[in-house]
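for the writeup, i need someone to sanity check this before i put it in the appendix. the sequnce is what the collaborator sent (i think, or maybe the updated version? ugh). structure was predicted straight from it, no edits. if anything looks off just tell me and ill rerun, i have time this weekend
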Amino acid sequence: MSSFTMVKALNEALRKELENDPKTLVMGEDVGRLGGVFRVTDGLYKDFGENRVIDTPLAESGIVGTAIGLALRGYRPVVEIQFDGFVYPAFDQIVTQLAKMHARALGHIKLPVTIRIPYAGGIGAVEHHSESHEAYFAHTAGLKVVSPSNPADAYWMLRQAVRSDDPVIFLEPKRRYWDKAELDPDAAAPTPLHQARVVRSGRDATLLAYGPMVKVCLEAAAAAEEDGRSLEVVDLRSLSPVDFDTLADSVRRTGRAVVVHEAPVFMGLGAELAARITERCFYSLEAPVLRVGGYHAPYPPSRVEDTFLPDLDRVLDAVDRAMAF
């Protein structure tokens, strides 16, 4: 058992998969010689060579299109999109080709493509470097969408994603890249890829979160405990499919739910979660399902992003409103 940052955990996961399967490839802008903007692929080019770790042109549509072609020929490409906002040139390839080819071929072909996307804010970056667009992909049938919240999950979930025969959008919360946690790379994967996990038990209300907001919710739960409130925190981990059974079990126990994500609340993933929880837990709810998220506006300049991003105070304010019913 050793301490890993999320960057190191992701790097180790890629290394393991490159070692285990000669058909696994890593490709993207600056992933080779440079080792990636965040150094997630650092050292892989040196150890596996330019035919396995491939520096591509600055053309996201071409990168994903090439990955699709490679997958059709039996490879398992792991694509890196350098920043969240750069994925849009590849959106056509992802939504109209990658997500649909399996169904279009009546299940006769598989597309084991993993697309890694550093996403969300909190690092003081400019526009197109801090966006949360998970709802676009979760809405698209044929794609699996996951987001780890800590280094251990990042390691295991990336390995599981690469081994999956389905296309996976792998969203990495960049502000958590330097968080540390204990990890045993030689152990067995503790949780299936698409299963949610209760990361803190509680009895008064459930906080539902994923990716960068899980840590914020854990901090909110710790602060609420000082006021005598017991908050349960559930990490979704998978955004499509969603493990609604784990979510519903938690809300039935606590009677209240607050959904927290960085993306704007309007038409965000929280709306679907709130609707499903209301349908499944109506007679257990003591209050409406509330949502905490970003504002329905373009991502702001970095100097004021702290006013845009949900924080501990906004989460606790929502808990107060839920407890007031």
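The longest strand covers residues 257-264. The CA atoms of residues 86 and 262 lie 18 Å apart.
thx in advance!!
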